[in-house]
Write a structure and sequence with these properties.
CATH superfamily of the largest domain in chain B: MetI-like
Low-confidence stretches of chain B: 1-16
Largest interface: A-B, 46 and 37 residues
CATH architecture of the largest domain in chain B: Orthogonal Bundle
Order of helices and strands of chain B: HHHEEHEEHHHHHHHH
Strand order of the largest sheet of chain B: 1-2-4-3
Mean pLDDT of chain B: 78
Radius of gyration of chain A: 24 Å
Mean pLDDT of chain A: 81
Number of helices of chain B: 12
Number of helices of chain A: 13
Structural class of chain B: alpha+beta
Largest sheet of chain B: 4 strands, antiparallel
Strand content of chain B: 5-15%
Helix content of chain B: 55-70%
Number of strands of chain B: 4
Oligomer: heterodimer
CATH class of the largest domain in chain B: Mainly Alpha
Order of helices and strands of chain A: HHHHHHHHHHHHH
Number of strands of chain A: 0
């Protein structure tokens, strides 16, 4: 399995290379530059700026330089936040985004599994219908609707929780709920379906026949099979959380990297955008790998050579 | 979809009609889907004709009615008239002595140190609250006069936005934009996905491997980041939105069509066409693609809400359609900014979006159940 993990990591390098290349050239083909302002700068100032940041060299040279620096862990200077390296800016935002995303992911997995199991155990009863209703709502309503509405209800109208900011655990509640809700819904639906199937399977019937307590049958035998679809959904879920955090960070005014991405793109801050794309891509690739390995641990039928 | 219910390609109309007739029957038995269909038709009509019959243009600004509450009663309300008249005439540099308000009409006595110019009425007309202002009587010395003006009756059923545009008209036009983008971008996704998937499935072998590997790689990427880059860097025009959104959503379609093609490829009529020496491209076009259409339509109805969502997501971030044109995402973003003092600005667009998405999803699920007996 270690060999498999290593091979997968090596296999990810071409993927990352393609992403970096595509993002780099896409940005450079586009019109506009980081130093375009309403008042045009003097030609000499412009030339000096371009020379400082290496923008006056041929594109392929800039590309080679960027790749070289990236390989050494340097993402280059930001074009807009003067005197800041991109890795410094991202190092500030990343902990916020990761904390937000991981909390949401854990909440989604926990609550989603719980709701899915409850619904499956009481199939076609009120609990089941309630869970299905919540899941349908969560899947249908996007988080750019739920996030402002949650903020409106719980922060503005009721005043129970802070509407924005970061640092105090209370300020995490609303963003995490807004971010996790769609994933809770999807996971609940997946687990419900798999659980219903698992409860009818032979090994669960055998366990029941042996007279194991009902709770034990569900938790030890049925759940293990029922949670598999949820685990394999973790990859897409991570991607959805990354996208969702752009919205949530904007609505709740959080200092994460999602904000830098949109702002950076609007300001043509080439290196900052590249840095965000690289971080996100690495994150997704590594996360997919972890999910695959986890799958093998949970499902003894899966073996990676 | 199982092969048995697929309409044979050249078997005539009767067979294919029966499939759709059964599907229609099944759909009509599904209450949620039926209600959704009604809601969607209503929303499509509202988007198509609503902006034509709406009392206000979606871009018309009423500076005196900024963020007014939704109300069934006409604006201006009684307590707004006096201050508005005073403010207008202060600009005209005359003193207001008395204001009498009767239904639909306001009478204002004014006095000035100099002779009153009859053109003073223009200051009243300039306000959105009054129209047809006229001088009723003038005193002998010309330094006092009574003005009369009709009071407008403006209905803002959903209130107005942060710069005084009618929210209802804006919701109607954004429905049109969202539905239009939903349909057209789905078309783009459909085109790419069907052609790509059919080609991969038909050619098979190494080409298929590589093509599907590419889909897998793209699938694992947070593709939305690339769409954002695309939209930011190449300007925000609607055509680009279609392409950008379509480029993200084609992956599922490609996978589904490939799967269908793989099973169709082994069918006798495809083999017969091959034996007759029909070119691969023609087989795909004449035999493969028409036979995948049933499945494609099902997934299309489920793709439309996703496309609308993606467009609104981009608009929410300020990367979508540009002012004064609007879309549900833009309206929700504006509502979120103003929710402290004008919560209705968030409420109505969010409600519209929610209802629209619910209806589309329920109808999509209903259609899938109706057309795909295996999946029930």
């Amino acid at each position: 399995m270690l060999a498999y993990a290593l091979r997968r990591l090596l296999g990810a390098i071409p993927t990352l290379f393609i992403i970096v290349t595509a993002a780099f050239f896409m940005m450079r083909i586009a019109p506009g530059g980081p130093f375009d302002q309403e008042r045009t700068l003097e030609a000499t100032v412009m030339a000096n700026l371009n020379a400082t940041f290496g923008l006056d060299r041929p594109l392929w040279q800039q590309y080679a330089m960027y790749l070289g620096n990236l390989a050494r862990g340097d993402m280059g200077p930001s074009f807009i936040y003067r005197d800041m390296r991109v890795q410094e800016i991202l190092a500030e935002g990343l902990p916020v985004s990761v904390q937000l995303g991981l909390t949401a992911l854990i909440l989604a997995l926990g609550l989603g599994t719980l709701l899915g199991c409850l619904a499956a155990l009481r199939q076609n009863h009120a609990t089941d219908y309630a869970v299905i209703a919540v899941a349908t709502f969560g899947i249908t309503v996007p988080n750019f609707v739920t996030a402002p509405v949650l903020s409106l209800v719980f922060a503005v109208l009721l005043g129970w929780l802070p509407a924005q900011g970061w640092g105090d655990p209370q300020q995490m509640i609303l963003p995490v709920i807004a971010l996790a809700l769609p994933q809770i819904a999807v996971i609940a639906r997946l687990v419900r379906g798999a659980m219903i199937e698992a409860l009818r399977s032979d090994h669960v019937r055998t366990a029941r026949a042996y007279g194991l307590p009902a709770r034990m049958v569900v938790v030890k035998h049925a759940l293990r099979a029922a949670i598999l679809p949820a685990v394999s959904y973790m990859g897409p879920a991570a991607a959805a959380l990354l996208t969702g955090s752009i919205v949530v960070e904007q609505v709740f005014n959080l200092p994460g990297i999602g904000r830098y991405f949109v702002q950076g793109a609007l300001n043509r801050d080439y290196t900052l955008v590249m840095g965000t794309v690289v971080i996100v891509a690495v994150f997704v690739v590594v996360f997919n790998l972890i999910v695959d390995l986890l799958y093998a641990v949970l499902d003894p039928r899966v073996r990676y050579e | 979809m199982s092969d048995a219910v697929l309409p044979p390609n050249d078997a005539g109309v009767a067979a294919s009609r029966s499939l759709w007739a059964t599907a229609w029957l099944r759909l009509r038995r599904n209450r949620a889907a039926k209600a959704s269909l009604v809601v969607l038709i209503f929303m499509a009509l509202a988007g198509l004709f609503g902006p034509l019959v709406a009392p206000h243009d979606y871009a018309k600004v009423y500076p005196e009615f900024v963020k007014v509450e939704p109300s069934l009663a006409p604006y201006p309300q009684a307590d707004q008239i006096e201050p508005a008249a005073e403010a207008a005439l202060r600009r005209a540099r005359v003193d207001v002595e008395a204001i009498a308000i009767s239904p639909g009409l306001v009478r204002i006595d004014i006095r000035s140190a100099r002779a009153i110019d009859p053109r003073v009425t223009r200051y009243l007309d300039r306000s959105d609250m009054f129209s047809n202002a006229r001088v009723a009587t003038t005193s002998e010395d010309g330094r006092a006069a009574t003005l009369e003006a009709d009071i407008s009756q403006l209905y803002f059923l959903a209130g107005t936005d942060a710069i005084g545009r009618d929210l209802l008209s804006r919701i109607l036009i954004s429905l049109r934009v969202s539905l239009m983008i939903g349909l057209l971008a789905t078309g783009v996704a459909l085109l790419i996905g069907v052609v790509y998937g059919a080609t991969a499935g038909f050619v098979g072998g190494r080409v298929d491997n590589v093509m599907m590997r590419v889909v897998d790689i793209l699938y694992s990427l947070p593709f939305v980041f690339f769409v954002i880059l695309l939209v930011v860097f190449f300007g925000r025009n609607i055509v680009l939105m279609f392409i950008a959104v379509g480029c993200v959503e084609w992956l599922d379609m490609a996978r589904i069509v490939r799967g269908q093609t793989l099973s169709l490829r082994r069918r006798e009529f495809v083999q017969a066409a091959e034996a007759l020496g029909v070119r691969g491209r023609d087989i795909v076009r004449r035999h493969i693609i028409p036979n995948t259409l049933g499945t494609v339509i099902i997934y299309m109805t489920l793709m439309i809400p996703r496309v609308i969502l993606l467009e609104s997501f981009l608009s929410f971030l300020g990367l979508g359609v540009q002012e004064p044109m609007t879309s549900l995402g833009v309206l929700i973003a504006e509502g979120a900014k103003n929710m402290r003092n004008a919560p209705f600005m968030l409420f109505w667009p969010a409600l519209t979006m929610t209802v629209l998405l619910f209806a589309l999803n329920f109808l999509g699920d209903g259609l899938r159940d109706a057309l795909d007996p295996k999946d029930r």
